[in-house]
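Can anyone check this?
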Amino acid sequence: MTPSPVPPSRRQPGRPRARAAVLGLLVAGMSCALTAPSYGQPATSEVPPVAQPALTKHSASAPTFSAPYLKGVSGPTPERTVNLAGPWGFTPIKNTVCTGGGQFGTTTGPMTCVDSPASNQETTIQVPGGGWHKQGYTDLSVAEYSRKIWVPKIRGGQVTTLNFGAINHEATLWVDGREVGTQTTSYTSSVFDISAFVRPGATHEIKLLVNGRKALVGSDGRYNVPEGASWSDDVAQGIFRSADLEVFPAVYVADTVVRTSVAKRELSYDVYVTNATGRAQDVAVAGKLGSWNHEHWKYPDLPRASANVPAGSTKKVTVGPLAWRAGSDSYWWPNLPYRSGYRAQLHNLSIAATTTSSTVGTARYDVRFGFRETKQVGDHYELNGRKVNFRGDSLQGANYANIYFHGRGDAYDTLPGFLKPSRNNGGWPQAVDNYLRLNFSGVRIHQVPATSYMLDVADERGLMLQDEPAIRGSNNRENFITGRGNMIKHLSDLVKRDRNHASVLRWSQSNEPMVAFFVNPGAGPEFDESLYQTVMGLDNTRPISTDAAVDPSTSDLPHDNYTVFCHYDGFSFGQYNESICSGPAGKPRGQGEFVWFNDHTPQGARWFATASMRMREQGASDIRPYTLPDVWSSVIPGVKRTQMRIESGYPDSGHPLLGEDNLPNPWTDSRIQLIQNAFNPVAAIDTEFWNANKLSNEAGEWPTAPATLAPGNVTRTLSLFNDTLDGERLTVTWRLRSGSLTGRIIDHDTFGTRITLGGRRQVPISFAVPATADPLYLQLQVSKPGEGTLYRDTSTVFRVQPSN
């Protein structure tokens, strides 16, 4: 590399410059520390006094949002870590305003972007601080960060890295005026190896030139990066999430990947050892297993492995497959049906890599994993050999990006409802519990990748996740030709980061890359295939899908572990829709988004329940109405409906329907209760009654059409479901009451039935209808042996025809 002839702060702003080669290998640096986020000055680091920019009034009042635990519990263990959170020098270089739109309004179609010089005056900004957009620089597209760093020295050789939790999107790093390299990322870590540019024990100056997404708009008016929310300007830009200097031994473990097979009852893992010294190293790799839940499993003995790693290279060391001697109780299972306080079984793998050299320290890497296996088997999915149906939501981080005061893009790192519990907020653990208590078995992390902490909590509490990159074709604002390299890299970064998480059971490789009414440059089967092969090259243990806005039968790929889930079948935006979409025979079916853009209305909230139930009756493998935050904003704790603007694109802009400010106890609300029952894994419904009332009305009333029965013997049909993962025996109890829910019981019965896991069946029940003017109420209850009552419903009401 040659030094930059012009200091970064004096570079002329412009369109993206060619990416320089990046020295070194990326290190997925993750800290195991669990400390509270700092909303003022960061905690004192082990750093000698280093002159830093003076605090301005602006930066002094801005919180740092430094929360190391958001990196997760798995990853390499640095010998030394220096937290770089706090005030950095900051020079705004270029502002960019993008306008325009396609046939569907200002948020769709290619843009026209106009650049103008920013202040070019150095000030200060908080890092991570939620990025520059959150700190008031809403038009900024290019800026420079700077500060001095002190590099700790460890015994023997060392590798020194700068690990930024996330930078959106293109960052070029200089150390003491020498260019290190350029990286382009979206919501995942940017890690720079600066070993060749710094001296241990010394102080150095770093500068980081960052191009935000508006600086990465091509000549066709489309982004060349996966930006996650084309319709919103409220997305994180610049440095956010975290900033650390990390020091590793010169021979270190860069990555560890765990693979589990329930079918074969086997465990294996790959350890990637990097040798940054100038000569080959003999490395011994040792592993140790333990229980995160403090159980006493009979773990397999882990053999020591050895490898000769050439100088300046990385070598993969594979251990196994090894027989998994712990029983099925050690498997990872979701919290299905919901049990308060449930914790899934997780296991810890600790890796130690040592060399024969006395000058190189021992490297460590910790992985927490679940022993489980998910497959696409013909027209359904299986978890640990049992049929599993996914029922839930698509969590769109950008929905919370525009929360008043707190938001502007970096919701996952700054809103208390996505963080660990605090004095006045249950945090993300409560949010996960809310999803599970709603009987949502799964959530698609939609477009804006979650933090590792969010995935950790889902691992622990048994929420099944569908992981998705920030690749978005919906608004016709990403170019999959000129930006393809960035798309592929981003997807690769995400898979590498998340593949050890037990809760991640499926990959969604993109969101709506093809849209029937758009022509997205580069979209089509060849692009989809390139994404598929990217995932398969890194992880072939999970099913892969695309959430698409086109007919699955015309956009599928010929792979038996891949399927396409449609959105808004038949262009049913804002309409009731119960279709599970046509597609290739023998593949799972369902619908990944429906109801929107009427999800925030009283009637639309009912459709979450009624349309989902109708899809269940048709055997859908995956059901996800879109989107729960617009129905109930406080599914993420602490978010009031009046703090949140509903997603751009609504013809009737406003606020979500429900929130803490108008729904202090959601679990007693009839709309929430109806959704709970519609998603309950062992639901029982009067089929004709639910079908007659599926549309509700504009006021969101339920029911709107009580069934009318003639006096005499009547037979009704119950639809019964068993979406649990254990036990086929169900006990159904029904009671028919007169006049009220506590009125006289005029008929009743209890019967047992068997329903296969993931299956459904219809059962007739008969009763005598008296000649009465009082309404009749059908009460339904389902229980399972050893688990008690799992389902109750009292919403079915009948009217009796008057006698002639």
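Reply from J.R.: I decoded it. The first strand starts at residue 75 and ends at 77.
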